[in-house]
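User: Before I run my own analysis I want an independent prediction to cross-check against. Here's the chain; please return only the structure tokens and, at the end, one sentence I can use as a sanity check.
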Amino acid sequence: MVDKIEGHNVRDPHDLHGKVEVQLDQAAEELTRRLDGNVDYQVARTAVSAAYRRLADQARVHNFLPILAARAAFQSLTHAA
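Assistant: Structure tokens:
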């Protein structure tokens, strides 16, 4: 949802958070497929969320964090196995 304040487009931060959660869900689903079902979806989702939080703490730009979090989670899960 985009509102206008003093002529500027302003996005609802709750809407942005919801979109990130959807992206993290999709990343976890893809990660589960890539790992041939050897990792439960919830384990993948937890790994993706943890990676996202770690990256978000230091990131200046958040646009690609869900993708980067998925890659980091994939690496951590494949090295742990």
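Sanity check: Helices lie at 13-34, 41-58, 65-80.
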